[in-house]
Specification:
Elements: E1 2-5, H1 11-24, H2 36-43, E2 50-55, E3 61-69, E4 78-85, H3 94-108, E5 113-120, H4 124-132, E6 136-147, E7 151-161
Parallel strand pairs: 4-5
Antiparallel strand pairs: 1-2, 2-3, 3-4, 5-7, 6-7
Length: 162
């Protein structure tokens, strides 16, 4: 697997799994009805932020991550990131590789920590992955997310020093 900078030409390969994940409403606080163009604007971030893709040897896009400054001004030393893995390729280490990549990017860019603002508590795979990579749950917003299956669940704020 290769992780590289995403280009506008990658968006048609990202969109099918991005759309399916966002429309399912189980893991992101995104509107469920994002259009192709809106999704592209939300995901393909301009510099100094970055968006990358994880690709297989045959060029298949397996997943993607976007990374950015979490706050402005005097809080601009904290990074954040978001990840989407094509469900057809889950369980193969793509999410872990993307998370490790964003941590290295943030460290190299001089950020002091990474913070995730809204990790859905019922997304146990993501919570477990982040905890295994050194993130702590700083707090949980009770019933901060309306899950389509589980009803109201918490939203974790997760943090890791770099």
């Amino acid at each position: 697997m290769l992780i590289r900078e995403a280009t506008p030409e990658d968006w048609p390969s990202i969109w099918p799994f991005f759309h399916a994940i966002a429309a399912a409403g189980e893991t992101f606080t995104y509107p469920l009805d994002l259009t192709f163009e809106q999704g592209r604007e939300w995901w393909l971030l301009p510099a100094p932020s970055r968006t990358v893709v994880a690709v297989a040897e045959d060029g298949t896009v397996l997943g993607s991550a976007k990374m950015n400054r979490n706050h402005q001004g005097n809080g601009s030393h904290i990074a954040s990131a978001s990840y989407m893995v094509d469900p057809a390729h889950s369980g193969r280490g793509v999410g872990r590789a993307l998370t490790e990549y964003t941590l290295e990017w943030a460290r190299a860019a001089g950020y002091r920590a990474m913070q995730f603002n809204a990790v859905v508590a019922s997304n146990e795979r993501a919570v477990g992955l982040y905890r295994s990579l050194g993130f702590d749950i700083l707090g949980t917003l009770p019933e901060g997310f309306r899950h389509p299956v589980h009803g109201y669940v918490g939203l974790h704020v997760m943090h890791r020093a770099l």
